Amino acid sequence: MKLKSGFLPLALALTVSTASYGAQKNESEKVIDIVNKVNQHWQENNKAESSAFWHNAAYHTGNMEAYFLTGNDAYREYSETWANYNQWMGAKERDKKRWKYRYGETKDHVLFGDWQICFQTYIDLYNINPEERKVRRAKEVMGYQITTPVKDYWWWSDGLYMVMPVMTKMYKLTGDRKYLDKLYEYLLASDSIMFDKEENLYYRDAKYVYPKHKTANGIKDFWARGDGWVLAGLAKVLKDMPDDFRHRPFFVDKYIKMAKAVAALQQPEGYWTRSMKDPQCAPGPETSGTAFFTYGIIWGVNNGYLQEEEFKPVIDKAWKYLSKTALQKDGTVGYVQPIGERAIPGQVIDARSTANFGVGAFLLASCEYARYLKTKEQSDRQYWCRLAYDMAKPVLSNMANGTLQKNMIVEVSPTWDGRNKKVAYMECFGRLMAGIAPWLALPDDDTEEGKMRRQLREWALKSYANAVDPQSPDYLLWNGHSQALVDAAYIAESFIRAYDQLWVPLDETTKQRYIKEFSSLRWVDPPYSNWLLFSSMVESFLAKVDAKYDKYRVNSALRKIEEWYVGDGWYSDGPSYAFDYYGSYVIHPMYLETLHTMAEAGVRGYDYRGMWNKALRRTQKYSLVLERFISPDGYFPAFGRSIPYRMAAMQPLAMMAWYGRLPAGVSEAQVRCALTEAFRRMFDDNNNYNEGGFLTIGFTGSQPNSADYYTNNGSLYMTSLSFLPLGLPASHSFWTDAPQPWTQQKAWKGKAFPKDHRWD
């Protein structure tokens, strides 16, 4: 039973409450209970009004993860109270001439990393409800820092957690890639000071580098919390670092090698001793380093950097220690080494030893562990996967066997213009693949989802071959009509979105056939509309695969699209403006992807990367508007051309989620919830498929009069373009964060919601 009202009748509410109380909790819910127990205990016993210095700020990085996972507004409000108390600043000196970057706890040590970690939380809070005051100081301080010639800002291992994630968050906030370049430059300087290349571990600072310093047993002294800061920091950096950053492989390699080195030094009881390679130096459990390591390793498994089969024993032992030994009955996190910089022999650390930064580390680890467990439980994602699979199966199972054109029940518009109906097959295949390609790019596993994904990919690869094989019954209609350019673009887009999984495995004959078919479409003179991007999409893909391409067709399209930008996230589709969803269907996604693909191919003569940054910001604004189009009940307005494309209207919003570039004020959880409800409104209670299992013309159900003269039911597979977030792994926060109301739900229930004004 689903009620349209936001309120439950009392009797039903009592029934639900009783059922929930008596229900057996799954494993992730048990971990979330631990998160709440620990965090509520800390907040009940510690005022939010405390300094912005590192030990407090480290706690807040964990508190914000707890907020994202649970959706508990009290956690967000606690961090906001702290931020307001500190005036959204770290060290408060205003005169830049007085700013220092070496160690210091006074107001003039503005450039010292221990005062900058607070910016991580401030930016997170800004992204929830964007107000410039929240990030003004972060922009001032970090913007100044990256203009200086100094490189050795991070001369102690702790600093790598304090500031590295700030750099990537600043990049996402501003779009300025100098933050990424400086991050790399500063880390190289850090490595020259305290990184051991043989061990793939960090000394706390230069004072502890071997052989200058040794344990009492003559062993290299790697301090667990120090290396915990680094591994956790690298995980946070990779979370926000763009895939196309030229030095990203350096960070990935460093992270993986360090994770393996750390795992090898875990004690049988699940913890890491303070001196990692010399357990006898300072024996016994320690929680802060262990928790940071646990977070860093689980994050890597959750995001595909580390193999689960290799690291699961490490995770299991670590969580057993954290939940059974470190966690006390009242919610205290014990066995936390007090503030220091090394493993101190003889120092008493017991169940009563706690600290704010240790609690923060524990929250990070437990939140990530909950996400790890959630991947194995029923979720919104499973609903999306089943919906995508059921939509794709009739198309791909038939086309893989060469029977799509035989078995597909084709429908055309009542006002059909008389073109060859065989265009439907190419439209159906190309548009479907563009939507599900990111999902098929994920690695195989033995889950139900993994089996569906593997089956679709196997069918897809056979279908790609049949599509260009003149001997196949499902050879597509590549010649004789201009429509082929449109859907060649979607096929090219599918290759770009999952290059290694969908293009690379194709045999050489098939690849050459695609290059030939794509190249042959240059006879089509695209009209001055979104069609220009179909041409640029095809040509940019040819550039990517190092085939002959027409640079003029790309650049002329880009110049016209830029000319047609009308402001505030909206493009005109040609010289005359039309209020419809063609910005969603074509313009925003293909403009971004053309620019990115040309930049990636190393084509010179046009500032593709610079234009991409500008176009990205426009897409972010447009996606913000799309999110606000979704009503409290999950409906969005049907208007303009091509209404039967259904959920394709939400493609840019889905794309920004997939990219990890949602605009401030729009969270991953609210987008997931809004899109899920829209899917349900559209597909759960309406007959959207004909008797052959293929989409039928309509917006919700069979509505043939909604079609335009060019519409066939192959066209409708454009709706798959809203599935792009399936390209994020099941453990990604998009899928695992607690449900959150979207903007219209907040607005219509009297809750606070971000204002929306014109963007520059």
Note the main attributes of this structure.
single chain; 760 residues; mainly alpha; Glycosyltransferase; 2 domains; two-stranded antiparallel ribbon; 28 helices; 4 strands
Layout: helices, strands, pairs:
Layout: H1 10-22, H2 27-45, H3 54-70, H4 73-85, H5 118-128, H6 136-145, H7 158-174, H8 178-194, E1 195-196, E2 201-202, H9 224-240, H10 248-263, H11 287-302, H12 308-326, H13 356-374, H14 380-400, H15 404-407, H16 423-440, H17 448-467, H18 483-497, H19 499-503, H20 508-520, H21 531-544, H22 551-563, E3 565-567, E4 570-571, H23 582-600, H24 608-629, H25 651-659, H26 668-683, H27 733-736, H28 743-748
Antiparallel strand pairs: 1-2, 3-4
Write up this protein.
With 760 residues, this protein is mostly helical. It has two domains: 27-374, Glycosyltransferase (Alpha/alpha barrel); 380-748, Glycosyltransferase (Alpha/alpha barrel), CATH 1.50.10. Helix content is 53%, strand content 1%. The chain contains 28 helices and four strands. It has helices spanning 10-22, 27-45, 54-70, 73-85, 118-128, 136-145, 158-174, 178-194, 224-240, 248-263, 287-302, 308-326, 356-374, 380-400, 404-407, 423-440, 448-467, 483-497, 499-503, 508-520, 531-544, 551-563, 582-600, 608-629, 651-659, 668-683, 733-736, 743-748; strands spanning 195-196, 201-202, 565-567, 570-571. The strands form two sheets. The protein has a two-stranded antiparallel sheet. A two-stranded antiparallel ribbon has the order 3-4. A hairpin with a 4-residue loop joins strand 1 and strand 2 (201-202). Helix 10 crosses helix 11 (287-302) and helix 16 (423-440) runs parallel beside helix 18. The chain is elongated and about 85 Å long. The relative contact order is 0.08. Mean pLDDT is 94; it is low at 1-22.
